[in-house]
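[job 4471] stage=fold_predict status=RUNNING
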Amino acid sequence: MLVVIANDLPPAVRGRMKLWFVEPRPNVFVSGVKDSVGKAVVEYLYEHCPPESGLMVFRRLNDAPGYEIRGVGDTRRSIVEISGLQLVQEKCVDTTSSVKIN
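[job 4471] inference complete, writing structure tokens
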């Protein structure tokens, strides 16, 4: 399985993605393509998308932990690795400085 989330894709790339993927929301693509096709699609994205596209790619692997997460450009989320496990870290907002307790 391959999931691609983008901030903004060039129109030509987005149109090509619709050949292999379902687009349940704008710039969110999901597909069950074979691993070899998925690898080719990911390489195509890296070659044809500028960093402003903000790609985050989730790809199924046969090795543990069973998936790989890769990001290109400003993805609005951070990818962190803890004990060999890749996770997507939400940006947290510090609200303690603006809260007053009486």
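[job 4471] summary: The beta strands are 2-5, 22-25, 28-31, 55-60, 67-72, 78-82, 85-89.
[job 4471] exit 0
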